[in-house]
Amino acid sequence: MDQAHSDDPSAARPEGQAPEGRASFGFRDVPAAEKAGLVREVFASVAPRYDLMNDLMSGGVHRLWKNAMVDVVNPRPGEKLLDVAGGTGDIAFRLLRRQGERPDVTVCDINPAMLEVGRDRAVDRGLLQGLTWATGDAEHLPFPDRSFDAYTIAFGLRNVTDIDQALRDAYRVLKPGGRFYCLEFSKVTSAPVGRVYDAYSERALPFFGKVIARDAESYRYLHESIRRFPPQRELAARMRAAGFENVSWRDMSLGVVALHQGWRI
Q: What is the DSSP pairing of strand 174-185 with strand 257-263?
């Protein structure tokens, strides 16, 4: 990890967003009502090779980022944990093992194909207790108010149609004192490194997608969605607007990714 930050709302400078009634889908703006379906198509296509592609594209570093996230969450026995947009189980399995006694982890994903991959992986690992799978939209979670002690979302927030609504619903399902954690690609803090990273991701993601997943277009979208996602300070401000307090973030790998966190007080 590189550096931790606390949000200063007065310093936030939100970047341009899609026009009203539309949503970003990569570098395109599409009707907001169509984005969820387009995203489902992307992840239905890449689901069988999603975890392999993560290893190839990041050189395995995504595992370190996810481990660091779970270190910060530090789940305690008996806590009710929710992992959103985590269909293949990468974060949920880590939470489950870390929680130890009385595990209680729910995975919620909008895409049935990703959940199917996750369930198969859980069976292969013998992870059958304390793990629940649910199909649901991050913007309208199928859970009652004040249900969970902690909410995690890793590399999923940039794919929702309305980020602000997803943040509000995350706040809704957390208990008072509940914690929110978002691990997501972000704004590289070094200009020279940023140029190299942008060039790599622009070329490598579609190339690996074509060769390994046989789907260059889906990985072109994933690259573009990273470029369109709000930078660290803007996301922190939007978390505060959703109601979260004690908002902060921590850059990893010079800001290639950032871990944001906030509390429902």
A: antiparallel
